[in-house]
Write a structure and sequence with these properties.
It is a single chain. About 0% of the residues lie in helices and about 50% in strands. The chain is an all-beta fold. Strands 2, 4, 5, 6, 9, 10 and 11 form a 7-stranded mixed β-sheet that branches. Strands 1-3-8-7 form a 4-stranded antiparallel β-sheet, with no helix packed on it. The protein is globular and about 40 Å long.
Length: about 130
């Protein structure tokens, strides 16, 4: 099992920044990559960004490219999501997820992520 705990959410004005953290514990060696997803009220959960543990390769949704940066600290088993130039439409519950090594490609595919955190709320006011 892999346990994931997110932190860093909060209320921020449009144009502001937040940094989310996701601390992983347990059988983290069984994970291949980590991802961030978000779900706004009344909407389906969507992919935000992902990063591979081994080489740090990153993947982003078009909606956040150039504004969000995902990074990882292998020693701390922690993944970060730096969010800049936040917009009201970024308001959502943000989830951290651990990706199984048995899937390849398409880092936006939710089914490839076997473990999920409880989420941290991000609210951007206009």
């Amino acid at each position: 099992q892999v346990q994931l705990v997110e932190s860093g959410g909060g209320l921020v004005q449009a144009g502001g920044s937040l940094r989310l953290s996701c601390a992983a514990s347990g059988r983290t060696f069984s994970t291949y990559a980590m991802g961030w997803f978000r779900q706004a009220p009344g909407k389906e959960r969507e992919f935000v960004a992902a990063i591979r543990w081994s080489d740090g390769n990153t993947y982003y949704a078009d909606s956040v490219k150039g504004r969000f940066t995902i990074s990882r600290d292998n020693a701390k088993k922690t993944v970060y999501l730096q969010m800049n130039s936040l917009k009201p439409e970024d308001t959502a519950l943000y989830y951290c997820a651990a990706r199984s090594p048995y899937y390849s490609g398409n880092y936006a595919y939710e089914g490839a992520y076997g473990f999920w955190g409880q989420g941290t709320q991000v609210t951007v006011s206009s």
